[in-house]
Automatic annotation (TrEMBL):
Principal EC category: hydrolase
Protein's UniProt name: Glycoside hydrolase family 97 protein
Organism, as annotated: Larkinella insperata
TM region(s), chain numbering: none
Span of domain Glycosyl-hydrolase 97 catalytic: 307-458
Domain Glycosyl-hydrolase 97 C-terminal oligomerisation per the UniProt entry, residue ranges: 556-651
Lineage of origin: Bacteria, Pseudomonadati, Bacteroidota, Cytophagia, Cytophagales
Length: 654
């Protein structure tokens, strides 16, 4: 939905044979400059406040019979300035999203053009073609050239024994190296962060990914270059617990597509440590909402039982995948203020969504959930959902399911990208929200399909079951890198908490590294309109004040501000819902003392309820304390964060 638009359109006279063609776009605030040169090659470069950020970087698109971007002949160009806003159906960071930029469109002889945009928080470009017939895209050149050997934060794909290098769950730790030391063999999935000394950060990613493979990145000299999975020609199904389709033969091209289309945006999100976590540039660049009715989309908190392996206690029944257990989860959700529960993997045969696990009466669970006013959500295996899609959605509707998860895609070639659109459109017709696990980053998909409400594509809580990977250092990197590309399903809320030395990965007795309040802060620091609580309800019921505090958190917000942040070290986020404000902070393994300035608050008195690391949290990370005080905008709040710690402050106007 658009609020207002003031557009200035400047048409340049046709230039046809003129070369080189040069234009410089500036961001609305004048700080970013995007310079475009059309000569024998097309290149772009970026400066910030006069400082070079991106050196001249080549752009081209190779089709079956031509290469777009080589010896281009510019026919005409036009520049427009846009001062607009988007009202978000699902308010991830803010309800009203300012959409302000300067845009250059350059039309070239040969039925193609390039579109460039300069925003205050980044730049982007894309190809547009207007061929009458379908086309084959052999390759794309997307080069990002840097000087001065910046530091790169990148998630490298780990090779699988049973598949090629383009198969990944998109769940890896960030490796941190100077660009010169990144191995030439490393393949990273985006987003990737580039940090040069005394310059703004640059996050490389994409948006409006549709009918096209996603962009990986690899080092090439002093540049990072786009790499794209070739089109799948043959697949086989794996054996094992969670079967999935593995590509066994690929084409010598990356996409076969319509000739009249726009291609994905290549995006550079640019800003300081405080800017990146609050940027919604990728969302703005996504294709506009395609749903005519969004009234049925209901964000809210959800439970999950898979990470803790349903290891309940203080109950009168045998816990497991059965009717009594899910009634218990429904009662728990209602007790603490959550909107729904998830029935994770195991409620049915993985290969047949109509073969319900013995001991589970889904009709009774559905009836009970309706009576308690709690929503039902269901896990599905992607290959099974795809095969049984239409009847499964009918069954889900009959049970009153309003949200499903589908899992184990582990690819982003063109064929798999089509799967996301097909599933999202089918779910929209059935008024069912969808979350993709084993998934690539959102890339603006949540703007186009707002019921695709969150997504995995992140190394999150489940890794505590079997590894040491989910550390506080990793946790505080995510807002600056992965979260820049859209909402992420980390699944926080583990209630067994450990120091670095105490932590052990134990299935069924899962703990997290860092403090209880570190887990609590994730619900507010991380963007996800449908966060999933992964803790053990039996433990949670022993701590009613903590759980009711958590259960009262909103999951969508009218406004978001980053009050303080340092890449990979800590972050402090403030969010507003109505007149209430929530401030949350997280740190790495370094203890910190921070001071929260409240001068962003409107005038008045506020009740500040704080849940923060307790005095013994450095030795026993479960330790936390509540406190309440009255504050005003002129006040400041000191807060101590234990190693791996966190805090949350709720501010309500008196």
């Amino acid at each position: 939905m658009k609020l207002s638009c003031l557009v200035l359109l400047l048409l340049c006279a046709p230039v046809f044979a003129a070369r080189p063609f040069q234009r410089t776009l500036t961001s609305p605030d004048g700080r970013l400059a995007l310079r475009v040169v059309f000569d024998t090659r097309i290149t772009f470069s970026v400066t910030h406040a006069g400082q070079p950020l991106v050196q001249p970087s080549a752009i081209s698109l190779t089709l079956d019979d031509k290469r777009l971007g080589i010896n281009s002949v510019v026919r005409q160009s036009r520049i427009r300035t846009v001062r607009d806003s988007i009202v978000a159906p699902v308010a991830l960071k803010r309800r009203v999203v300012p959409d302000q930029y300067t845009e250059l469109t350059v039309e070239c002889r040969g039925n193609y053009s390039l579109i460039f945009r300069a925003y205050n928080d980044g730049v982007a470009y894309r190809f547009r073609t207007s061929f009458p017939d379908s086309i084959i895209v052999r390759s794309e050149e997307a080069r990002f050239e840097f000087a001065d050997d910046p530091t790169v934060y990148y998630p490298a794909v780990q090779p699988r024994a049973d598949a090629d290098r383009f198969h990944t769950s998109f769940e890896e730790l960030y490796q941190v190296q100077p660009l010169s030391q990144v191995p030439d063999t490393a393949l990273a999935f985006s987003p990737v962060l580039v940090a040069a000394s005394n310059k703004p950060r640059v996050v490389i990613t994409e948006s409006d990914l549709e009918e096209y493979p996603g962009m990986f990145l690899a080092k090439n000299g002093t540049a990072l270059t786009g790499v794209f999975a070739p089109f799948p020609l043959a697949e086989r199904m794996t054996q094992g617990e969670f079967p999935q389709a593995i590509v066994t033969r690929r084409a010598d091209y990356i996409a076969r597509t319509t000739g009249r289309r726009v291609f994905p945006w290549r995006v550079l999100v640019i800003g300081s440590d405080r800017d990146l976590p609050s940027s919604d540039l990728v969302y703005r660049l996504g294709a506009p909402n395609r749903l005519t009715d969004v009234s049925w989309i209901r964000p809210g908190q959800c439970t999950d039982e898979w990470i803790t392996n349903i290891n309940l206690f203080n109950v009168s029944f045998r816990a497991g995948i059965n009717t009594a257990t899910y009634k218990f989860y429904i009662d728990f959700a209602k007790r603490v203020g959550f909107e729904r529960i998830l029935l994770d993997a195991g409620w049915s045969d993985y290969l047949d969504l109509f073969k319900i696990t013995p001991g589970l009466d889904m009709d009774e669970v559905a009836r009970y959930a309706r009576a308690q006013g709690i929503g039902l959500s269901m896990w599905t295996l992607a290959s099974t959902l795809d095969r049984q899609l239409e009847p499964a959605l009918v069954q889900f509707q009959r049970w009153g399911v309003d949200f499903i998860m589908t899992d184990f895609m582990d690819r982003d070639d063109q064929l798999m990208v089509r799967f996301y659109t097909r599933i999202a459109e089918a779910c929209a017709k059935s008024r069912i929200m969808i979350m993709f696990h084993g998934a690539y980053k959102p890339a603006g998909f949540d703007r186009t399909y707002p019921h695709a409400i969150t997504r995995e594509g992140v190394l999150g809580s489940e890794y505590n079951i079997w590894s040491h990977k989910a550390t506080p250092e990793h946790d505080v990197l995510l807002p600056f890198i992965r979260m820049v590309s859209g909402p992420m399903d980390y699944e926080p809320g583990l209630l067994e908490n450990a120091t670095k030395d105490q932590f052990r990965p134990i299935a069924g007795k899962v703990m997290s590294q860092g403090t209880r309040c570190h887990q609590l802060a994730m619900f507010l620091v991380y963007d996800s309109p449908l966060p999933i609580f992964s803790g053990n309800p039996s433990q949670a019921l022993l701590e009613p004040r903590f759980m009711e505090f958590l259960g009262g958190f909103p999951t969508t917000y009218d406004e978001t501000r980053i009050l303080d942040a340092q890449l990979g070290d800590y972050i402090v986020t403030a969010r507003r819902k109505g007149q209430d404000w929530y401030i949350a902070g997280m740190t790495d393994w370094t203890a910190r003392d921070l001071t929260l300035r409240l001068d962003f608050l409107p005038m008045g008195e506020y009740e500040a309820v704080r849940c923060a690391d307790g005095p013994n949290a450095d030795r026993n990370p479960v330790d936390y304390q509540f406190s309440t005080q009255t504050v005003r905008p002129r006040d400041s709040l000191p807060v101590h964060l234990a190693p791996g710690g966190g805090f949350v402050v709720r501010l309500r106007r008196k």
